Amino acid sequence: ETPSRSRVSGRVSRVSGRVGHETSIFRAGEVCEEEEEEEEEDEQASDAAVHHAAAHFVSSTLPLGWPKSLGIRQEWQAERAMKQVRTEHLRGRASTFRKSGLSGKSMAGSEQRAWYMIDPNSHFIMIWGVISLCVLMYDLTLLPYVLAWDISFEGWLAVSAWTTPSFWSIDIVLTFLTGVWRGSELVMGPRTVARNYLRTWFVIDAVVVSCDWISLIIGEIAGASGGRSLKMLRFSKMGRLLRIVGMMRMLRVMRILEAFAHKYLPEGSHLSITLVTLFGSILWVSHILACAWHAVGQYCPSDTGARWTLEYAESVGGRSVPYLEIGAVYQYLIAFSWAAGQIALGSIDVTPTNSVERFVFVFAMMIGFLFGSTLVSMLSAAMMNYQLRQRDKNHNIRTLHQYLRENDVDSSVAVPVQKQIMQRLAQRTKLREGDVPALALLSVALRSALRFDIQRPHLMRHPMFRLWISLQAELVQGVCMAAVGFIQLRQKDDLFLVGNTAASAYSLTAGELSYAQVPDTSPVDAPQVTRVHPGTWLCEAALWTEWIHVGRAEATTSCSILEIDGEKLVESVSRDMIIMDIATEYCKQFHRRVTSAGPPHAPWPNDLEVPFTDYCDLVFSMKPEVQVTIGMHAVRLLDKHGHGSKASEKLTDEVHVGKSIVVVTGEGSIIRVVSLVALRVQREDGHILTQVAKWGNSQMIAACKLPGFKQQRDELVGEAVQRLFNTDLQFLADRVTITGTVRENTEIKSKEFGVQTRYLKSVCSAKVKPDACVDAPKCGVGAAEEARLSEAS
């Protein structure tokens, strides 16, 4: 049953009862009783009373007996009724992990996808698309000029002439190796991808690339024969014109660039990008028309015997210079000004002189009219959209000013209100799912897959959710649909307040939060503010216990936060017995650490951290069936990464029989876990109790270390220390006072298993009580052993 949450009533006072760095809060009556006891009892009893006082914390915002009075979430308690059924099923599943690995469905899916196929949404394909756009624009800009002015392929032009066909040949191969989309389904089968490419773009790409290679080969043959045949050279250059068909590839690349702009560039820059794109389009079309106009005047047949290139003359320095006697650069500028005049419908000083030129002239005018009007309409639409956005913003500001004025709000409040609203209106907020009406058209399955793909990277940072995704991705996809969502906070917004009941856990995905605790509502000596950075989990205790916030979280910048609803999480995972049993065991161990947290064996818990709830700690304390399931999953991943067979088999055997515990961390690392407990006892004169040797093989072996041993499964740190006092250190049981516990984690690569071994070492500090007489047991040491120990020391 859930413990009562009645709050402490009456006057609350704060007393500095310090053990380590902890502060206690008591009701006034309790404080008076404590002071009377301190006056009556001796110094030893006083120390014990202060130590006992520091282990309790009372606040008007927390239930009595916090945190020991916190119960497990009722939803998890209800689900534990099927424990025996799930346990039997879990044992059968754990025994098959070693043989089967992945489920049949997952294996079937992995067999259908070839390892060499490339995801079309990968970063490599996006980068390749951008490079393709650059190469394509280079070709379509340089090639018309080279053909129109009959420039020979020498120097860097010769290098580019061989480089671009090679690039597009590689592009054809990559297209065969890149998956395709069929509606909402990603197809990665090599045969299906090849058939799709052969039916669509392959013929065009093959013709363009073939013409490139043929033109180069003909040019090389002509050059090797001692001269360049005009017909062969013209044929090779005309073959290169077919590459203009490849301009259709720009549609694919432009979609990539558009998605990149919408994803990474602020909304206010879209208008600038549109203007730059329109201006660049005008220049490029003018360039194409200029090259075409020059080529018509040079190479096309004339029915009048005249050509504009022969008739046109430019006045330079008071004399008329024929067009063909001017330099190539100036010729290009004359043709370019003619083309720009066609688009802008301005004055033109070059007139056609034959039928072909007249036809091209009329055609260019029509193209210029259509292209120019299209650009003007696009520019007008972009400006109109910008003005509409500004109008809505200005309307909101005017309405705010009117509201503040009509309610006669004081300027000390009105000015900050106006400043904050103007700042937030200027900020670009991340779109939420509800802001995209088009998503309502998706099927439930595809919408669930979309949400899972967005939330999956953030869930994978938590080892437990990473395990669930590996074992049953479809179940976690349902969890994302039902229990997981995003919260968008602006600067100064509160995520939660102190004293409120916590219903969800959070993970900061972007931005920064500040977490504040004050002595009146939290077990701290002085106000504390902690900066919370992306990747940090908050209030995980809310998923497993009836948690109450002991601090306040506020956004210091615009934040994006992943939220997991505790109640809906239980409903979602209850459909799978394996995941549910793992979650129930995780909940049990987490709750034990929440209720046992507090001095001297652990710090007080808060919304950011509960002591000793690291994933490795929790798995170490779980029941053997769950440990085997988690361990076999980790070993399977180890085999997948190419781990040595002998070491892997030995580790698998140890995990299977319960001798070793292996887990996968939130970063994806595979580690072996060993938990240790040590006791650091210090006397008033500063001396520390240590073990200097151990007995083995009928001799004394030097081993200077703190007394301790391996922690047993399902054993808390305080319980392990008590076991140490009940066994090896009975002579200290009633003569020391525990003052605190620190965690010292170390990782060493195991030579035997070839994986990292993490040692979870909990060091408990204790002080010998004043005037306590320690009667330690003694043992005799021979002369040889004494000499050996002296040398070792």
Tell me what you see in this structure.
- The protein has 793 residues and is α+β, with helices and mostly antiparallel strands.
- The strands form seven sheets. Strands 15, 16, 19, 20 and 21 form a five-stranded mixed β-sheet that branches. A four-stranded antiparallel β-sheet has the order 7-14-9-12.
- Strand 5 and strand 6 (319-322) form a beta hairpin.
- Mean pLDDT is 78; it is low at 1-54, 83-91, 93-111, 226-230 and 242-249.
**In the CATH classification, which architecture of the largest domain applies?**
Sandwich
Q: How many individual β-strands?
A: 21
Q: What is the beta-strand fraction? A: 15-25%
Question: Rough shape?
Answer: elongated
Percent helix: 40-55%
Termini separation: 57 Å
Overall tally of structural domains: 5
CATH class designation of the largest domain:
Mainly Beta
- The CATH superfamily of the largest domain is known as Jelly Rolls
Helical segment tally?
27
Poorly predicted residue ranges: 1-54, 83-91, 93-111, 226-230, 242-249
Indicate the mean pLDDT.
78
* Structural class based on helices, strands and sheet pairing: alpha+beta
Largest sheet: 5 strands, mixed
Write down the Rg. 39 Å
Enter the CATH topology name of the largest domain: Jelly Rolls
GO cellular component, one term: HCN channel complex
GO molecular function, one term: voltage-gated potassium channel activity
GO biological process, one term: regulation of membrane depolarization
Keywords: Membrane, Transmembrane, Transmembrane helix
